[in-house]
Amino acid sequence: MNYVLLTGIYALEIASGILILGLFKKGDQPLNVFLSTTSGQVFLFGLIVSAISVALIVFEYMKSRRVGFAGFRMTTVLGVTPVVIIVLTLELSIRLLSTSGMYGETFLGLHLRPRIWEDQVARNREILKRMSSDGAYLQYDDYLGWSIGPNRRSVDGMYLSSAEGVRSPTVNMSMLTQEAKGRIALIGDSFTFGEEVKFEETWGYFLQQYVGGERQVLNYGVPGYGLDQAYLRYLRDVRPLHPDIMVIGLISHDIERTMTVYNFISFPEWEFPFAKPRFSSSNGDLAIVNSPIPSPEAITKWSSIDQLPFLEYDRGYYESEWDSTKLDCSYLFRFLTSKFPRWPIRSAEVSDRAQIALNSEILLKLISVAREDGTLPVVVYFPTHGTFVRMSSEMVTQGEELAIEVLEHSHVVYSDLTSCLMQVHDSERFVPSKRHYSPEANMYVAKCIAEDIADMRSG
Fold it and tell me: How many beta carbons lie within 10 A of that of residue 346, not counting itself?
């Protein structure tokens, strides 16, 4: 047995795998930029190992010419056969264990690239068909992307909306006909809306109990909204009411949503076939780059993802996730390139810096407009289940929470409800899905917000 040759063969096989993955991860990056990354340095290491291995194998081959090829052939077979068996076994296992889901094939919970546009179109059409037959609670909106339909009842009967398209205790009612000395408007996402709990279990409902009959609380929260959509919702639907107080609810994911254009690209696990507005900032001026928003039906008529306009503004779009290669016939290759994807080259519009700056600008603009209208803005940060998990494992730092980073960058006064929610036992803080607050947690949220409002008004 020629162990030197065997080592060279094994090293060449491993290095070849590293080089194939490295070339995929390089993508369109300039070579000098790629080699400065960790992946590039691993690729360079694989290149060196490959060169040494080839030289070693050639040397052993030349030496075998003098003593006979039998030992060389036997060692080569022993070096190649086990690797071939392992690769074929992995390939077959991934093929057999992969499952097809709503948004592509998955293996052990990992979504395998490439994503197929035709599959996405089919899924969007199925969602739209189901929404049409069920009388969807959410509807397409060419200004906001989507909004709550007027006088709607969700399929499960948990969510009801008024004639104004806000969450209400019953359908076919107008929230604005109720007499009140003043109004408190709530804007935000599903945490503000109160997803996964009944109307009487939302913090908006409890807040109404705490403020008594003095003011009417109107819940303009919409599931899935980013900070940008909350701002636009205020301008169009809330501002004309001239509320005394506006509560702006924020979670960290809202900051990411502001940087997207197509929900089904950035958040494929959502059943949202909608596009959304996308702001851009130039010289301190905010402007929507993609208004009016295309309807979900119009989006399904495009024949390829490359035809979607404003993809360069969608932070969740990675070309490598959608591009297919000749090697994609191998499930093992698809698994490895999904597990170790290309490092995205972000443009200035979707950079980490732009994400903080744009959200900060939108938040400051929202607060400024509200104050000009005589409305008191109350900014509230909602910690998610992940926040408490990281806190319990001592992994969290303030910088890891995007919403906190934006709030600190904006230098605005805000209420962090983390300590407030610490009063609720861990097991009772969230609904079973762990995505939203439980009724008990919502009650504490309302109590703390009511106290903040009282302090701000007295101050």
Answer: 14
- Backbone torsions φ then ψ of 234, nearest 5 degrees: -65, -50
The helix (H) or strand (E) run that includes residue 5 is helix 3-26
Q: Is residue 330 part of a domain?
A: yes
Three-class secondary structure of residue 194 per DSSP: coil
- The pLDDT tens digits for 240-264 are 999 999 999 999 999 999 999 999 9
Kindly report the backbone phi and psi dihedral angles of residue 415, in degrees, each rounded to the nearest multiple of 5, phi listed first: -110, 120
Q: Which two tokens stand for residue 241?
A: 């009411």
Measure the CA angle with vertex 182, ends 231 and 367; round to 5°.
25
Q: Which of 97, 129, 154 is where one domain is finished?
A: 97
Residues 43 and 133 both lie in one domain: no
| pTM reported for the whole predicted model | 0.85
Q: Is residue 190 part of a domain?
A: yes
Average pLDDT, the chain: 91
Burial of 210 (C-beta count, 10 Å sphere; 0-12/13-18/19+): middle
Contact 309, 293 (CB under 8 A): no
Are 258 and 372 part of one and the same domain? Answer: yes
